[in-house]
Specification:
Elements lengths: L7 E12 L5 E9 L4 E3 L9 E3 L19 H6 L1 E9 L4 E5 L1 H7 L5 E9 L13 H16 L18
Antiparallel strand pairs: 1-2, 1-4, 2-3, 3-4, 5-6, 5-7
Length: 165
């Protein structure tokens, strides 16, 4: 693309821009165009991938780890919902409440998810000898195994037995 020198500026990023195509961090020179778009490179003619600019620093109140407490209605229903966020910048995984989950899910620096967390199960023992508690723990263990790829440190503060009765 051609742009006159007055229609763009060149700067360097220490790694707080994300590549739009794959979400990886970009370190190096970038171009900011007159219309607020960002590209890798030093001139419009050699512009590479489009970049996503950094957003303002996250509200520190949102970065506090939350410890949920299921209530009796949750136990009557047999499950409750847990919310997790992964802060891409630091690689930190934390559990958050629902309102912070909603706020963080709108920010580029976070990967968020909500999961169904089993609390109880049937009180009947099956032919294979699995009791209700074992079924809930097995379901939660499967949930954690699925989450660990995107949330690597999640098993350091969440165990499948948590809250299971």
């Amino acid at each position: 693309m051609y742009l006159p020198r007055t229609r763009y500026k060149v700067s360097n990023t220490p790694g707080n821009f994300l590549k739009k195509a794959d979400g990886t961090f970009y370190v190096g020179p970038y171009i900011e165009t007159f219309n607020g778009r960002y590209f890798t490179g030093t001139t419009p003619q050699t512009a590479g991938e489009e970049l996503t600019p950094p957003v303002t620093a996250p509200d520190q109140q949102l970065l506090v780890n939350f410890y949920p407490s299921p209530i009796e209605n949750d136990y009557s229903r047999g499950y409750f919902t847990r919310y997790f966020a992964y802060y891409i910048v630091t690689g930190r995984t934390l559990e958050v409440n629902r309102s912070n989950y909603i706020k963080l899910s709108k920010q580029q620096e976070y990967t968020t998810t909500s999961v169904r967390w089993e609390l109880t199960g049937d009180t009947i023992t099956t032919y294979s000898g699995i009791t209700s508690k074992d079924k809930a723990v097995a379901a939660n263990s499967n949930t954690l195994d699925t989450l660990v790829t995107e949330y690597p440190s999640i098993k350091s503060f969440v165990s499948p037995e948590q809250f299971v009765r």
